[in-house]
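Bench notes, bay 3.
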Amino acid sequence: MDADADFSLLDEDTGTTACLTGDWTAMRLHDAGQRLAQAVAAHDGLSIDLRKIGRCDTAGAHTIFRAADRRKASGKLLARRETLRLLHLVEAASQDKLPVVIPRRGFHALMNRLGRGIVDVRDDVYETIIFNGHLLTAVGRCLIRPHRIRWAAVISACERTGLDALPIVATTSLFIGAVIGLLGTNMLRDFGAQVFAVELIGIGVLREFNVLITAILLAGRSSSAFAAEIGAMKMNQEIDAMQVMGVDPFEALVMPRFIALLLMMPLLVFVATLAGLAGGMLVTWAALDLSPTFFLQRIVDNVGPTQFWVGMSKAPVMAMMIAAIGCRQGMEVGGNVESLGQRVTGAVVHAIFSIILIDAVVALIYMELNL
């Protein structure tokens, strides 16, 4: 039966002993801790006997520890083994002191933030290398043993990342092509070269804007979705459960999304190309009265298939990068919602930054190759 915390003082030949009884828990303490502390302060060498107490939690152990800490070394502490372990645990926790944070301002604070940023970049690069190594290992295993690929998950990811993205990709590319057509028409009209707006639209859409717009849309749509899906599983410890059952998370979660985006990205770029050319064709038809047949003929004669293949060659690179960044950020999610939000945001930002960087590098390479 539960009893309130209490104690009694017994005078013995060896000195005074405080015999504790009842349950020394947070709900049963009341003022017993204060009275025990006063008794310890009033009796030199007071011994404390804990062998008759019932239940004891950390609140009771902390109260007893604070009272016993005031007694002199001649006093004894008698307790059962489990009670002693609890007291030692509370004593160790009480001795831990929180670091004193001194606010820093000015130049020192600036250098401190700069240093922390450099260290974070280093850690991020290191984690990225580790993730890429795991991903390459999973890709190698799937190439050697194709039956390890989870095709059901791949088809589901293809539908979500590819087919569901077709309307937004086509609509955005249509308007981008129309904007390029309007700008080209207005600028070239001053020089009497309005007809060359067709070549401007063809080169801009086929070479750059089709893959760039598609990749940016997928970075905001698919990369964030990958990070959120995998991150939610990481928060719920589902990935840990998969590892316990012997399932490789890279084969079960990363590879299906990686393969799906690699397969669907060229299709989306092709649709973006058609939509962009359609938008430019409508503008030149309305503003310059150039027929669609004339528009397409000039595209074939003066632009050529090289520009198309230059743009399409970027699609697999963009797809691999977007999928890898999204899955990697999902794998880095911690155990709270704040971490999930940060990683989803980081997936979008990193993907868009990498898209622009890679597009610039590839453009320089093709320029050196005269393509």
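Next record in the batch:
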Amino acid sequence: MHILFLSDNFPPEVNAPASRTYDHCREWVKSGHQVTVITCAPNFPKGKVYHGYHNRLWQSELMDGIRVIRVWSYVTCNEGFARRIADYMSFMVSAFFAALFVRKIDMIIGTSPQFFTACAAFATSIVKRRPWIFELRDIWPESIRAVGAMKTVRLLDVLERLELFLYRKATAIIAVTYAFKQNLVERGIDEAKIFVVTNGVDTSRFTPIPKDYDLLTELGLHETFIAGYIGTHGMAHGLDTLIDAARVLARSERADQIRIIMLGDGAHRARLEERAKADGLDNILFIDSVPKHEVTRYWSILDASIIHLTKSEVFKTVIPSKMFECMGMGIPILHGVEGESAEIILRHDIGLTFEPENHLDLVDRLIILHDNVEMRERLSRNGPHTAQHYDRKVLAANMLSVIEACTMRENARS
């Protein structure tokens, strides 16, 4: 079977969509299938094309057996709704035309978070007369409303009508959470066509490892409790809560005991750094994004991982993918996200939850974990065991079974 996968994020980018798409496609290739990925020049999250790549009309490479076609798109940093839409739409058009030249396709997949990639997948399916799957990673544009990124209500209404149209036209929908599935069912989408394949972790890569003492020395973080946020610094993540928590800690008796590191980039990174500097906070350290193969070094030095999203009904349906990486590495989680993901944390006893955007609640949990070594060790032990339930190899196989069933059903109809 030849699977065509459209995604505007792919390695060497290290965000959640890139990692999930790569891990799944790699496993499908190992299973004997042909996989072609159409993506753009790697540029996330800074909006700058990575060294060694060019923003050209067409580039092709082979990555672990996956044929990767990179097309031109309007490259911009994650600032301003209009520019982001231009980015998304330019990739949609380029990906569609590139897909027309990919021969003998059996299944087309378009992934979100934004659904313009799914538009390209749908258009390709019409021309190629092949089935297509909408991989739903985010309820978009509802999440735009949640963070207030756009004030034009009428345009958001138009986008939501387009969203529902794509759900109805898709041969199948693969959602990453059960809450997403329930959302679609409540909005009139046929439950029989919706499948759930959660995010997960490559357990061969994210596994408990000793602390990287060379890195601790480099960062000057020996003899301290280290809590870290690793990921995108964007509107949805509400990272001012961490700055506020650091300010409280800096003025307490814990000032020299607990450090917070923030690794990554995004639209709010510069502003957050400026806030910390203006407050004179020396207990919070900002670190630039690092290549994917180096991320585990930074995970290794954490005594706790902070995961946070703004307080919103929409984000109760989200399961942040970094949660699974923390599981695999045995890092206790301080989880500031309500809903389905918090239930996983508590059910498997792999972390503590705190109220989103409540910095005092976060401070309380930081102190509890700092003081209770026995608790930290218990949460750490439970993580890798839980991660086995979310192994990317198993999840890739589950998704492949949906793809094969849809392909067989469509072939039988034709």
